[in-house]
Each structure stands twice: as C-alpha cells, then as structure tokens.
Amino acid sequence: MPELPLRSDPLPASEVVDFELVLRYGESQRERLEEERQRLLAGDSPGRIAHAVRAADPSDIEAVSAFAQREGLTIVEVDPTARRMRLSGPAATVNRLFGVTLMRRSTNERVWIDYAGEVTIPRELEPIVEAVLGLTQKPAASHS
Amino acid sequence: MPVAGATRVAPVDPHERIETTIVLRRHETLPPIGLRVSREEFSTTHGSRQSDVDVVVRFAHEHGLAVTAIHPERRTIRVAGPADAMKSAFGAQLSYFESSQGRYRGRVGALTLPEPIAPLVDAVLGLDNRPVAKPHSRRLAQPAAARALRPTQVAGAYNFPQTVDGTGQTIGIIELGGGFKSTDLDTYFASIGVKRPQVSAVGVLQGTNNPGVDQNADGEVMLDIEVAGAVAPGANIVVYFAPNTDQGFHDAIAQAVHDTTNKPSVISISWGGPEVNWTAQAMKVMDAALQDAAALGVTVTIAAGDDGSTDGVQDGESHVDFPCSSPFALACGGTRLELTASGSIQNEVVWNELPRSGATGGGFSNTFPLPTYQQGSNASRLSKMRGVPDVAGDADPTTGYDVLVDGASEVIGGTSAVAPLWAGLVALINQQIGKPVGFWNPALYGQLASGFNDVTSGNNGTQKAGPGWDACTGLGTPDAKKLLLSFAGAAVA
Questions:
Q1: C-alpha separations of B48 from B29, B52, B61, B125, B128 in Å
Q2: Do the beta carbons of residue B191 and residue B141 sit within 8 Å?
Q3: Are strands B93-99 and B76-82 parallel, antiparallel or unpaired?
C-alpha cells in the first residue's frame, strides 16, 4: 500500500532531480512493431533478432539532446539499446517542461520525491518520447 | 598479463562475440552538454567531452563494432562485436589460457590504437575475462521446518525432469529491494542436499544487493533464489537489484532483457501492483520491454499477486496485477498443493485463504485486449480482455516453501514462489530441448495444452476454477513430463 505523507512541500526551484525518458524504437523497427506484436501473440515467431535492432534512432537521441541542452538539462546516461536517456535538471525547469509540481513528501520514517499533477510530454518531444519515468520515488510495486 | 602458470591453449574464435568498455580521458574544461547545474555525482570535470565520444563512436562503427552504451558521466563507451573486429580496432591478439583459476580469455602483446584515437582513450577493458575467485562453501544445514514443502518436493510432484539441472542457462531475477547473503545460500542448499547454484548481483541505477535492512524484501529475494536454484541448480542465477520506482522497475526489465553479458534465457519477476496504480506511460514502456523479451526469445515469468480477485484494491471491483497482465508475461497464479507420502499430488485446489493468508490473483485486464493465443480458450468466452494467470503452481503459505532468510528458517508462500518455480522449469526445458522456449504462451495454449494438471476446484473471490483455462490457475500446474512429451511430439510432427 502506498504510504500517506504527513508533509508535502514543493521542491525548491533550484533543487536538481534525476529522471528518465524512454524513447520510441528506431525507424527501421517502428513500423514493424505492431505487426511483430501480432505475430508473436499468434505464436508466429519472427525468429531471434539482434539487440541492436531494438535500439533508438541516433537522430532521436540527438533531437532529445538538443532539447535538453536548450532547456538547461544535463544528460546523465544514454542507453540506445534500451531506448533510455537519463537527464537531470532543476525542479523549476522540470515542472515547467513536464507540467507537474515536484514535491518532497515525508512520513516520520521516510522522505521521498513525488509530483502533483499529470506528466505531459513537451510537444517538441512528441512522438519521440514515450514515457517520462523517475519523477516519483513512490514505490511502484510490492512483492507478491 | 597472463595469470602465473597459465598456458596458452587456443586462439579465440574470430566470430566470438566480445563486449568491451572504452574509458575516455577526463574532460578538463567545459561540461559536455551545456549546463549550469552541477551535481556532485555528475561532476562535469569528471565527464567526457561530447567531441571525444563522437570520434570514438565513429571509430567503433568503422571497425564493425556496435555501440551498446554511452555513459558520459562515467567516461565509458561500451562496444560489442566479433573477436576479429576487436583485433582490427585495438590490435589485440586474443587467446584462451588455462590456469589454476580456470580457463580465461586474455590478450597477447600490447593494445594499439590509431593516432587520432589514442590520446582520447584511457583504457580498453574487458578483452580479458580472467576468472574471479569463487565463494568458499560453508557448513551446513539447519533442520528444515516440519510442514512446509521443499522446492524439490514441489518439482517432484510436477514431474520436473531429473536428467537436466539447467546447466548452460541463465535465470535472471528482478528484485526491487532486499538482498541475499552468500552464506545463507551456502547453508540453504547444503541443508536440502542440492548443489549451490552460481548467484550474482547486478545493480540497476542505485540498486544494490542490500541484505539485512528490510526483512520482508529479503524474504522475497531469498524465496526467489532458493526456489529457482533448487529446481535448476546448474543454472547461472543473476539477480538484478533496482530501486522500487517506475523507473527502477522499467530499467531492471530493460537491462535484464538486453543483458548481452549474462544473456538470461528466462527472467522471473515476483513484484507488481494493481493496474490502476500504474500510469499509462509506464505500462506502455514496460510492456514494450516485455515485447523486446519475446522478440529476443526470453521467457518472462511474473507473479499474479496474492490478494485474490480485488488485487488488494478497496473499491469493490475486480482488479489484476501489472506487469503480469502484459500479454508477453507468463502470468503465474497459485494453488494449495497436498502430496501423498510418496510425493505425488494428492489434492490441488485454488489457493484461497482470504481474509488472513491471501489468495491467488487472477481476472481480466482493464488495459490489454484478449491476445490471439487466448482466443478459443475459456478466457475468450468470459471477456474481451487479457485473462490472467496463464499457469499456476503451489503458493498457499500453509503448503508453502521452506526457505532460509537472514539466517532463519521460514515458510513462505505466495505467487512469488510460482514465478521462480516456472523460471527454473523453463531453464530445465531449455537445456533438455537444446534451445530456448522463449515466448511460449501461444504454444502452451496450443500444442502443449495437455502438459498441465487441470485445477478445477476453488475460487479467488469473483473468479472460479473449472475445467480448462480459468482466471484462478490458468491452464493449470505443470506436468513437466507431459510438456516435454508434447515438445517431442511437436518436433516429430
């Protein structure tokens, strides 16, 4: 069960947070994905494919990098194969870009970062970015 | 340098795939990508220059090497490719050596890099894979608790093959907390008379093997390792520890699926949350990572949850757990298993000990439509949405598994035990048939459907068991002997 915070305060504007963007598949794969999905679910294996085939397009990574640079975000890690880019930046910038208010929440035992509002992907990053993760440290799962 | 006393035994196969890490020089002046903020850990003075990265990436591509990761803050670029491409790029003669520490790959002579590249590179790591020390085995054996079942007894009841032990397979296990103590594993496997499997930890983001802090999470970790390891002791077990966040969970799956070093052929996940607690974005990309697994031939077994048909949500409706509700998951439900004196199945029903001791998750997704492979099964008569679980196994804590956690014997149940049980079985089958079963849900609902003990009695709240597929135990619990016979039949046909 998610904990209920006793305190919630907006993060200071300059506090730096770390988060992750998950990119779409590279162009060579993109159009085939839905078809592949249907084939896999029907038991028609396309045969083993190379990891690299699943990677993000370098041009998409460049576009996100340029966006990050312009908006004052730091690139922490780029993992093309898993289509992940980790970025960091000040809370005020993240709030503005992704339409949220980053919060620090706490109980007597625990302190965690979370957000209020709903994450929206900046128009310029659509349709390249499929998800923004890591803006909350709320437990995502429990063990069964 | 070769290990003392090592002898060179054979040149490396030119096609052997090798992954190396190139360490770039430090950046002396400006941040790689324009920035005002600087955080201690990503200190710009320690990062690499973007221009250096570009040059080295181009160099790698020119030599037929794939770039598998770029970490500017760690100044590392990982590249992968066949041995002969490594030789062309780095001038390295690679050979196998035999030493008292075992066989390893090493290089002969110095590395050479072309003039424009050499000054940018501090090191090239990983061409060698000299062995690291193995843990010492320890004594010994705590007596097992009386009523519980050992994983090996459950495997016996389900007719798991005895002639294979998972050798050559890697089982990946995803954990979002907790940790394991090597000494506990030594003790546990000695106590059940099973060879101790190789178990290693991989950190994802800030995740680490961190035993002794959260005993509940340690229980999950030990249950997963001990069940998978008891079933397939010859398999290599790699545990991916990630923070329990949406990012941590996604990255752990992505890292395990794309782990070209350990190459898991099956991944076990005993963590999840009700679909309603997930954002659409997070579900989409985690489902995509599971599609990657399916396309790459990696089976992913995922626990169906322990709170019956509500999945613990207090709104009076039925809910299922994600990520098991992804159509690319092998969703694992739970039963209550009683054995005869000789160890065969006496009685098996749906696990339902609500309200006190849980019940198997199961029902229909609110997100994912009915997959093709469930068309024609009972799932398609009950819903237009993905039904879970797909399969089941012993999970009731009253017939639970005897495990050792933080030095103490415990009996633990839950569908958490079923995901590693099936992962162990997949490793055995992969070894037996000589190739990975990969994403085999369509086969399980098709030509392998006779390989199950159909569980027809019980409920988990709103869902009831019955003949054929049901939303409590899926197709049933494994009869591995029949599953393997079906494989043989399919191969002949």
A1: 10, 7, 19, 17, 24
A2: yes
A3: unpaired
Residues 217-246 of B with CB under 8 A from A: 217, 220, 243-246
In angstroms, what separates the C-alpha of B4 from chain A's closest C-alpha?
37
The verdict on B262 touching A (C-beta cutoff 8 Å) is no
pLDDT given for residue B129 in this prediction: 61
Angle at B185 between CA B180 and CA B187, to 5 degrees: 135
Instruction: Determine whether B482 is exposed, middle or buried from the number of CB atoms within 10 Å of its CB (0-12, 13-18, 19+).
Output: middle
Q: Which of A42, A49, A83 comes nearest B296 by C-beta?
A: A49
Euclidean distance between the first and final Cα of chain B, in Å?
Answer: 53
Is B220 an active-site residue?
Answer: yes
Runs of H (alpha helix) within B408-459: 415-433, 441-445
Q: Is cis: bond before B2, omega within 30 of 0? A: no
Q: Do B249 and A38 touch (CB under 8 A)?
A: no
Work out the number of other CB atoms within 10 angstroms of the CB of residue A104. Answer: 18
Nearest one of B331, B255, B317 to B286, comparing CA atoms: B255
Residues of B in contact with A15 (CB under 8 A): none
Give the gap in angstroms from C-alpha B335 to the nearest C-alpha of chain A.
14
Radius of gyration of chain A (CA): 18
Chain A interface mutation, best of B38, B76, B247, highest count of A Cβ atoms under 10 Å: B247
B315/A contact by beta carbon, under 8 A: no
Amino acid at B448: L
What DSSP string describes A58-121?
HHHHHHHHHHHHHHT-EEEEEETTTTEEEEEEEHHHHHHHHTEEEEEEE-SS-EEEEEEE----
Cis-peptide into B355, omega within 30 deg: yes
- Distance from the Cα of A101 to chain B's closest Cα (Å) equals 17
Catalytic residue among B48, B325, B326, B416, which? B416
Contact indicator for B287, B250 with CB cutoff of 8 Å: no
Q: How many CB atoms lie within 10 A of CB B410?
A: 17
* pLDDT one-digit tens code per residue, B303-354: 999 999 999 998 999 999 999 999 999 999 999 999 999 999 999 999 999 8
pTM of the predicted structure, to 2 decimals: 0.76
Whole-angstrom CA distances from B122 to A78, B125, B173 are 20, 10, 34
Cα–Cα distance measured from residue B322 to residue B363, given in angstroms and rounded to the nearest whole number: 12
Residue-wise pLDDT tens digits, B451-482: 999 999 999 999 999 999 999 999 999 999 99
**B224 is annotated as an active-site residue:** yes
- B244:A77 CB<8 A: no
Strands (DSSP E) contained in B242-324 are 266-269, 271-274, 299-303, 321-322
Cβ–Cβ gap B220/A88 under 8 Å? no
- Mean pLDDT value across residues A51-69: 91
Q: Which of A112-121, B15-24, B100-109 has the highest mean pLDDT?
A: A112-121
What is the tens place of the pLDDT at every residue in B117-157? 877 877 777 677 653 322 211 112 233 333 689 999 999 99
Provide, rounded to the nearest whole percent, the portion of chain A with pLDDT above 90. 68
What residue has token string 């040149």? B11
- Among candidates A49, A73, A84 on the partner chain, residue whose Cβ is nearest the Cβ of B295: A49
